[in-house]
Specification:
single chain; 17 helices
Amino acid sequence: MARNPVQVLSKYNAQFGDTFRLYLGGLKEVTITIDPAVIQHVLKTNADNYHKSDIQVKRMGHFLGKGLLTTHGEPWKTQRRLIQKGFDRRQMDALSVIMHDSLNDSMRTFERQISAGPVDIYPQLMKMTFAMVARSLFGAKLADEDIESVSNTICTVQEFIVRQTLQPYLNPWFAVSGELRKHEEMRASADAVLMRYIKQRRSGEPGSDLLQTMMDARYSDGEGMSDELVLSESMQLLVAGHETSSNGLSWLLYLFSTHPECLERVRQEFDAVMGNAPLNPMDMMKLEYTTQVIQEGLRLYPPFWMIDREAIADDRVGDVEIPAGSTVIVYVYGAHHAPRYWENPESFDPERFTPANKKLHTPFTHLPFGGGPRVCIGNHYAMLQILMILSELLRKYDFELLPGQTIEARPMVILRPRYGIRMRFTEAAPRDLIQAEVQSPAVAQ
């Protein structure tokens, strides 16, 4: 189970049905489901009876503080309403300028990396998306060295939280050996970096970023968020906001490299909608086929492969009894790959997500950003980010997988590539030349 829970849970689904129960470690009762009726009940219909697990709230809360990822009830609802304003259409237009500037900087770094030879695209895209999210939060003046410092801290602390979760018997040793303290000090150092920007903004000129949205937000009593709460929310948005996109982008580039006809169709759509211009938020609705490709990529490789909740009170969904205190795991990967809900589920088929076909989908069988009231607050931002980065990479470069490598998903907190995805990038031929060749093929003499 520890090495590949996806493989084990999918086998159990095939053997025991859409919903089954087991005891983790022989002690903790867990209900695991891909049944859309149960999923909808837990995530939406009766969501107030299901809180995030202690693992998320306590382990993540210890390092990230109290915020959207680690609170429940009215405090969560209040924060959600305030922060949601940072992702409305007007604010997204403002953020897109910051996002483009960040992407231009990242592309210069990326160009230097690929000119030296093949690269593992996962860490490259991680750096790209982290810088974009960080500058969307703290503005264009966020220094490169501070971005790198905070990014390294978040990645290291996340790995440590995974170890705490998967090997809980080591937690006493982590405490006495200094491992816990070392990671707490790393977090404190990153907090100090971000707090410096928060203090500077309080006493300086306002910005057009998410930090300003949080500072301007007011509760019903007229008070605003404290600097400490702004810091916690900022750190949690950084954690949640970058790896989802970089993970999705990595798998999409892999899928493009194995489906060249799909890649060409996306490039043609970019040409028709954008020409040589950069993407803006108004273009998103016009990129219908590209959006279908992204949705299918996120079906095959959902960033969050499972969602866990704990039942507050006894509950029942149809024939499924859920005792108070037990855990429910919404097995997202299993729902995305279930033959009952998807024809040929292991195949890559963007046509599943045409407007006509989407109407035929069973609700709560496609959950790349979760579902219900706790659906990812930045899902529209993530889609804009993915489209923006794809529009640059796919128009500038041709790319191919290096032969001889094993491409396999590793289900950690995120469904990462286990061994990376190594690719070679070369400058793409000008699109107008390609179009001319397609439209005016040479005639044999």
